[in-house]
Amino acid sequence: MEMVISIFALIGSLALFLYGMKVMSEGLEKFAGERLRGILAWMTKNRFMGVLTGIIITALIQSSSATTVMVVSFVNAGLMTLSEAIGVIMGANIGTTVTAWVISIVGFKMNIAAFAIPLLALGMPMMFSGKGSRKNLGEFIFGFSFLFMGLSYLQEAAVAMDLSGMVAKMLALVPQDSFFTILLFVVVGALVTMIVQASAATMAITLMLFSMNIPGFDFEEAAALAMGQNIGTTITAFMASLTANTQARRAALAHMFFNVFGVVVVLMIFYPACDAVDWFVENVMGGGNDLFKLSSFHTAFNVFNTILLIGFVKQIEMLVCWVMPTSEQDEESRLQFISAGMLSTAELSILEAQKEINSFSVRCNRMAGFVDELLDIDKDEDFNKLFSRIEKYESITDNMEVEIANYLHKVSEGRLSIESKMEIMRMLRQVTELESIGDSCYNLARTLNRRRQNCTTPFTEQQTDNMHHMMSMVRKAMEHMGQLVEAGMTGHHVDFNISYNLENEINNYRKHLKNRNLQDVNAGVYSYQIGVFYIDFISECERLGDYILNVVQATKPERV
Length: 560
What we know:
By secondary structure, the chain is an all-alpha fold.
């Protein structure tokens, strides 16, 4: 019974460590907010800045997996190119070594849980603060405390269940001083990291075992375990990219290729590399505790791989593009930037949805252009072909609304700042109104189709000119709406008053044409029936203008 309790205590301690890392990472991401997004968006214009960015971000949020998933999300959303992503991923591998150094310096030499508890007292009032930034900082403090409390309890649980003795018995079954044993530890490190989904947790366990001076678990075996973690950590980004677009999957594949290639190269020079690190720690760093050797190897391994491959970013990009060519499904998919199963961190997922809404706006504008073309088509075959295309677009807009809304609802279930929750509400209104624009464009096409089927008399030249003019006003309003939607994503300033002025012009023009229609029908210029189809088209254009203005209002409601 005592052993069962000890096992659960060990698992619970690991769970507390992982939860602390998750809360700390999310709290910092929300606290940084747009600044964190800006760093990744602007500091990756060349491979060296990309590496530096990856180091900084990962050192801050203490999770290379979170950084890599973030990068995959940016590639998926079209905010970062594949070559830029590869540089950040290289830097993330170096940044994650900070965790090992923190643990090596303070993790097992002092009872860090003793001051982690007072930190909770500091973070608690901040957690209930009404100010978003203070609340997010409180979450970071909570996560930091939980992380090191979990680490302290992990060590206590390991001692209580005599984990060192159990590991020593298992190691007695494998040959000593054998390269096969080194390979076995690489595989074990990869598998454990895949299971716990956090290389930092596996590194913490490795450091803990190494500090116990277990017979058979020497520096070389611990180093091999650390190398395996670099392979295992790639599974997180790979799983996140499964339902993403091809570019995002390529970024995850590049991460896997980079880490696996690095392990293979270092395995070729494994024993000389260990001797070099041992000499460096003893003669340059002046010794220190044994954990410094393992942390130094972990850092040297990742720095070496980055230096080795940073000059071959373009070649890595070409390789992953060759392995994973663009599929036809990607070219024809309704959603270009998000997918139902693709969620990174809740805050950063909003960027993907914003990009998709911008694409939605472009599709609606294109659909209105088809309607304008439909007015001038005489041949039935050409008319039916374009009408079918508009009908297909209407079905696509219906599905886009549902898929984007479902995605936003999933994002809203995450840990979000108040500002992000407000942003999601605005975005949900945007997609609803954009779908109404798609319906309205389809109604315009149906009006023209009904006229062809039920009335042999065509529109007069004046009616056609008026309809074209009304469509030009609507399309101008739609183009400005698209600029506002894109500006809401990029932060550029666009004058909202233009949209209100255009909507007023559309309303006034509809009133003018409606009054003129009554006069023309009474004067016998054209039949009552053709006048009905004509006014139906003009009135639908006016409704379309209303939907466009609704999207504008949802884009920046505080300016309404």
